[in-house]
TrEMBL record:
Gene: folD
Protein name listed in UniProt: Bifunctional protein FolD
Record Gene3D superfamilies: Leucine Dehydrogenase, chain A, domain 1, NAD(P)-binding Rossmann-like Domain
EC number per UniProt: 1.5.1.5, 3.5.4.9
Task performed by this protein: Catalyzes the oxidation of 5,10-methylenetetrahydrofolate to 5,10-methenyltetrahydrofolate and then the hydrolysis of 5,10-methenyltetrahydrofolate to 10-formyltetrahydrofolate.
Length: 280
């Protein structure tokens, strides 16, 4: 079998176009554009690139984007104070704190300061709980983008064995919750998993969410399985050995052009949702 492509660029485009239309209508109602603020602590080059991409795309589709950069040496209290100020600012609809923050900063504490109403990146405990309980709320952007992509191609989820490789707070754990909510049978694998290859071989759907280039080998993929590569590694290499996996999978996400564009489109869609909720 040769896999068909889950085209994240095209699917994201449709969501971005719809988001731009909603943003334009809201701009009239609010008297200002829906506003996303990104907060970057430090100057990690990859993070700088991602944050710029998010800001540029926001502007292109009719949102306002503000970028805040704090020094690499910031304390938790300093970053929390900045985020709290944004949470209290009526001209701000959504806040994204770029992960990872420097090690001296308590990232979960900073995420909590966003508050549920502006958590368009889906990283607070309240958003996580909502994802787990199937309640309305903002989804973590990459997991939410993955589900939107699978839905766009009508990939069935109910009853499928989904194997999530990785358990990070903003990708692996929440994507498993969303798949469970859609009635998949979910297995989480991680660094302590005894025989990763054997578990992946049983998957109908594999979600790679580790950040280790080509960790998932092509010959682990069951014939006809669906492969979602959520890995972002330097040089646009995914977590999956793409060419070999594509020979066996029924559907596969490319890197680039798969999960990444869906992540950003979901972020912007949720920012417009947050702005809409303020209008009431
Ligand atoms: N609080 C937080 N939320 C995030 O959502 C978040 C984060 N922190 N930290 C870093 C990761 C990474 N991430 C990406 C988003 C889009 C692409 C993307 O669109 N990539 C393009 C390629 C870009 C290129 O060509 O360089 C693609 O896959 O087609 C990649 C990576 C969001 N993240």
């Amino acid at each position: 079998m040769t896999a068909r492509i889950l085209d994240g660029t095209a699917t994201a485009q449709a969501l971005l176009d719809e988001t731009a239309e909603r943003a334009a209508k809201l701009t009239e109602q609010l008297g200002r554009k829906p506003c996303l603020v990104t907060v970057l602590v430090g100057e990690d080059p990859a993070s700088v690139t991602y944050v710029k991409m998010k800001g540029n795309r926001a502007r292109k589709y009719g949102l306002e984007s503000r970028r805040i950069v704090l020094p690499e040496t910031s304390t938790t209290a300093e970053v929390v104070a900045q985020v709290e100020a944004l949470a209290a600012d009526n001209t701000v609809d959504g806040i994204l704190v770029q992960h990872p923050v420097p090690s001296q900063v308590d990232e979960p504490a900073v995420f909590e300061a966003i508050g549920a109403a502006k958590d368009v990146d889906g990283v607070t405990m309240a958003s996580f709980a909502a994802m787990g309980l199937g309640r309305p709320g903002f989804q973590s952007c990459t997991p939410g983008g993955i589900i939107r992509l699978l839905d766009a191609y009508e990939v069935p989820l109910a009853g499928q064995h989904a194997v999530v490789v990785g358990r990070s707070p903003i990708l692996g754990k929440p994507v498993g919750l969303l798949l469970l909510e859609r009635n998949a049978t979910v297995t989480y694998c991680h660094s302590k998993t005894r025989d990763l290859a054997e578990v992946v071989k049983t998957a109908d759907i594999v979600v790679a969410a580790v950040g280790k280039p080509e960790l998932i080998r092509g010959d682990w993929i069951k014939e006809g399985a669906v492969v979602v590569d959520g890995g972002y590694n330097p040089g646009n290499v995914g977590d999956v050995e793409y060419a070999a996996a594509a020979e066996r999978a029924s559907w596969i996400t490319p890197v680039p052009g798969g999960v990444g564009p869906m992540t950003i489109a979901t972020l912007l869609a949720q920012t417009v949702d947050a702005a809409a909720a303020r209008v009431g």
